């Protein structure tokens, strides 16, 4: 499971011109689900994501998490994070979790995230989404968690 975290001052997701999710300061999380990923892996990722220290403290050091700051989390499914790009000029998605399984797991992850964090927004699984953000820093990290 991969999560690309971007510290943002704001982020939003639009589908067919309608805003389906938006946050102010916090984390935009692009989530890639791989074959073999399950709820146990998801819980490890959520633990790390909510505690990962990417926000500045009073000295400007990255010592605060999104939980510490009370920032929002915008969760967006992005199967392209599961691409194998090592060979050739076309990505292979053979490592990605099949769409029906990925959607079920994504919905479970979203529900668990909403249970654990007060401000959560989300994209629409499988939709053609337009994601806008103002990356703060810029600060971007790729978290990878396996079983």
From TrEMBL:
Keywords: Cytoplasm, Hydrolase, RNA-binding, tRNA-binding. It holds the Pfam family Tyr_Deacylase. InterPro entries: Daa-tRNA_deacyls_DTD, DTD-like_sf. Gene3D superfamilies: D-tyrosyl-tRNA(Tyr) deacylase (3.50.80.10). One of its GO terms (molecular function) is Ser(Gly)-tRNA(Ala) hydrolase activity. It comes from the Bacteria. It is found in: Cytoplasm. One of its GO terms (biological process) is D-amino acid catabolic process. Its EC number is 3.1.1.96, 3.1.1.-. A motif (Gly-cisPro motif, important for rejection of L-amino acids) lies at residues 137-138. It catalyses: a D-aminoacyl-tRNA + H2O = a tRNA + a D-alpha-amino acid + H(+); glycyl-tRNA(Ala) + H2O = tRNA(Ala) + glycine + H(+). SUPFAM superfamilies: DTD-like (SSF69500). GO terms for cellular component: cytoplasm. It is an enzyme of class 3 (hydrolase). A Gly-cisPro motif from one monomer fits into the active site of the other monomer to allow specific chiral rejection of L-amino acids. Belongs to the DTD family. An aminoacyl-tRNA editing enzyme that deacylates mischarged D-aminoacyl-tRNAs. Also deacylates mischarged glycyl-tRNA(Ala), protecting cells against glycine mischarging by AlaRS. Acts via tRNA-based rather than protein-based catalysis; rejects L-amino acids rather than detecting D-amino acids in the active site. By recycling D-aminoacyl-tRNA to D-amino acids and free tRNA molecules, this enzyme counteracts the toxicity associated with the formation of D-aminoacyl-tRNA entities in vivo and helps enforce protein L-homochirality. Homodimer. This is D-aminoacyl-tRNA deacylase.
């Amino acid at each position: 499971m991969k999560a690309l975290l971007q510290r943002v001052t704001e982020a939003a997701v639009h589908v067919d011109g309608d805003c389906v999710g938006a946050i102010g300061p916090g984390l935009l999380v692009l989530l890639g689900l791989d074959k073999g990923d399950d709820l146990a892996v998801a819980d490890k990722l959520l633990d790390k994501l909510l505690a990962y220290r990417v926000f500045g403290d009073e000295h400007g050091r990255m010592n605060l998490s999104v939980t510490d700051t009370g920032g929002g989390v915008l969760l967006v499914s992005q199967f392209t994070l599961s691409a194998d790009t090592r060979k050739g000029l076309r990505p292979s998605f053979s490592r990605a979790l099949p769409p029906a399984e990925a959607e079920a797991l994504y919905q479970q992850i979203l529900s668990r995230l909403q249970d654990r964090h007060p401000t959560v927004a989300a994209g629409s699984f499988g939709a053609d989404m337009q994601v806008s953000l103002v990356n703060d820093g810029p600060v971007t990290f790729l978290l990878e968690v396996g079983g």
